[in-house]
Input
Amino acid sequence: MFYNMIRSSLPEEVLAPPREVGALKFRWNPTPLIVSKRPLDIFNINRIRRTVGWRKGLHFIIVVRDPRALVSSHHKAVPSDFFQGYDQCYYVSDQGLSYANPGVIRTFEAIRKVAKDTRHKVTVVRYEDIVSDPDRVQEMLHSLGIAWRGRFSEFYKSDIPSELTRALNGVRKADPSNATSWQIEESRARRVIQQFTGEPRLFDLLKEWKYETGRRWFDDLVAEFGPYIAPRGTIVGFYTTGTYYEKEAQRLQRSAARLGLEPLLTGVPSTGSWVRNASMKARFLLQQREALSGPLLYVDVDAVFHADPWITLMAGEEDLAVYYNREGRLISATIFINDTPGSRELLERWTAACEADPDEWDQILLQRIINDDEASNIPRFRVRRLPASFCWIFDRGEREPYDGKIIIEQLQASRESLREDRGRFRRMSRRLKRRLDRIEAIERELSA
Output
């Protein structure tokens, strides 16, 4: 919205792309004045300084918003879930949706660093001021030296490109009520209670950015809508008997016991094929869903717990929650299964697909079912994306931003099969060695 206000009021000689483009794209552009917009640029400031700052003067305009409104906001691309949380934020791409971008905590940490840096001009603008008095905000930007040809308050009357209207949820004048809707809408209020209960550092952000000085507001919200009670259910998993997965299951149990958790792990005969063993997951989970009441959390046994998952799970009305990486690929190593009719129907469809095609990877079939449903006119299932901290692959961390807390770490036992695959052993041996080194470190931790 703010970028559209600026763009619609700029003189014609100023370059402002009709879509979201990062500043690095313009490092060789000769245009004297360029206005770019990309939220993730806040994490790329040093590189922007190095590659753009030596040729052009830089002025960073940062928009901050009440964290309570941020964690309870929606986005048109994600109708079934809140768009961001304290830990991570949805990443929308052509490959699909993943909960893989940095969340509120990391974003404010980055904003703090930039706002305090004196090497370049920085202007911090509050979202609440933008929606309540956009023309006054426009006056605040006089240091840009721009002869505005329009008023911010009338931005919605301009011809806004389609790529810039998607996140607006409709082109209309600025509405101040959006800034405080979390106070009166029950679903948003409960979300705020969930998030601030799960991450107390959010209270510090309110104080730092002068939104609140105390917690009276939180007590009032809890008094009206009730406290957040973390879901408590059953952690389930299965392993193939007579294989190295038995040791994986023992390690998982030991890591869980340290946290007072008691996973229900079941031994099953191996089919002799890794892919076919994995395809048993759907039938196993359907049986567990029928036998047990309450939420279920499935975890592959070649994993370890570092924190209690129930405290930060933040379950809602979804049928299922599963992790997607930034490439849009579903990873079925950790799955939250709610106690709903929708979860049962989804498991039934997944089971039927796996049994009809047992040589296809189970997570590919599950993703196909979910993608088809989400693309339909009336989706039947509510599927939420889990953050990377619930499915952390120990040697791929640099590819996934997260909030610093690893809850479930995946140890990739499938790499053990490389011992028997002599044709690929030389190329893949380093991946296997990283796994063995990591297991050795974890075993030391569990034995301490």
Summary: Confidence is low (pLDDT under 50) at residues 420-425.
